[in-house]
Design goal:
Number of helices: 10
Shape: elongated
Radius of gyration: 21 Å
Distance between the termini: 67 Å
Strand content: 15-25%
Strand order of the largest sheet: 5-4-3-6-9-11-10
Order of helices and strands: HHHHHEEHEHEHEEEEHEHEE
Largest sheet: 7 strands, mixed
Helix content: 25-40%
Structural class: alpha/beta
């Protein structure tokens, strides 16, 4: 302990020590999120009560988490939580950690769904359930189906749906479109693996702790995008939409892929960081 023996530190002192140990752009945010989680309070509490002295249990847990975060372990794995589309989602090492750029996909899909009208939506490779649950919570009259190849990921997604009381989602185990029923869908959404196996980004940051199967795809990262675009075309009703996330440098290739498969009204969209991120295509009516 770097503070005085016998006297526990205040919130302010503890955060100052944590900032010193963590590096990177998100050091301050990470330190605050982790301390708030240890205390079971919102982050605003840290700013309201900076002189509050923490107890031994909090101090022990926080010291452990900061050490592990400094070694690279993702914040979402330490707290077991990540917020997506304002829904608090449980996250484990079996699932991808939901990222803000995927909210772009949710936004684009919702923009094409009428509010009070029933519709059929599928989220392929649901992971923690982020996309499926965001859509289901915003469009309670839509039936949402979520698929995943990983039984462990599906269990996390199902538990998230139950805890959030979202009932208009069903979960099916299997590879991409394989487990889907024959009835066509109005929307097929997916955030598939799209990172090339040789990508240097895989050696740093949170991705080192996430399931490789949820990140890496063959064929220069295009293989899974190709499989989904092709199986989705057969499962969409005429006039139905495919909305798919891809890597920042795959927008043109994904758009060409959709056009070659017969989709029309194909367009590519940027995320909040202005990087190419989501391609849409419509099955001709």
């Amino acid at each position: 302990r770097s503070h005085m023996a016998g006297a526990n530190p205040s919130i302010r002192e503890l955060l100052a020590q944590a900032f010193d140990l963590l590096s990177g752009d998100s050091a301050r945010l990470d330190a605050e999120v982790l301390l708030a989680a240890c205390l079971g309070k919102p982050r605003s509490y840290l700013h309201a009560w900076p002189e509050h002295v923490v107890n031994d249990t909090t101090l022990t847990q926080y010291t452990d988490w900061i050490t592990r975060r400094a070694a690279g372990e993702p914040v979402a794995h330490l707290t077991g939580m990540r917020e997506f589309w304002s829904l608090p989602l449980t996250v484990t090492p079996d699932t991808l950690i939901p990222r803000p750029e995927t909210e772009t996909l949710v936004e684009l899909a919702l923009g094409r769904m009428a509010t009070g009208t029933p519709c059929r939506v599928v989220d392929l490779g649901t992971g923690s359930g982020a996309i499926a649950l965001a859509i289901a919570s915003e469009r309670p009259r839509c039936e949402v189906t979520a698929t995943d190849n990983s039984a462990a990921a599906l269990a996390v997604a199902q538990a998230n749906a139950e805890r959030l009381g979202i009932r208009n989602v069903q979960f099916l185990a299997g590879h991409w479109c394989d487990p889907l029923p024959a009835t066509p869908f109005d929307f097929i959404l997916s955030n598939p693996p799209y990172i090339d196996a040789d990508d240097p980004h895989l050696a740093s940051g949170d991705v080192r702790f996430e399931p490789r199967s949820a990140l890496v795809a063959g064929g220069n990262g295009m293989e899974e995008l190709e499989q989904i675009a092709s199986c989705a075309f057969a499962r969409l009703r005429p006039g139905g939409w495919l909305v798919i996330e891809h890597g920042y440098d795959q927008g043109e290739r994904t758009a060409r892929l959709l056009q070659s498969l017969g989709y029309d009204e194909v367009s590519d969209h940027n995320d909040a960081a202005r990087l190419s991120r989501v391609t849409l295509g419509r099955r001709p009516a």
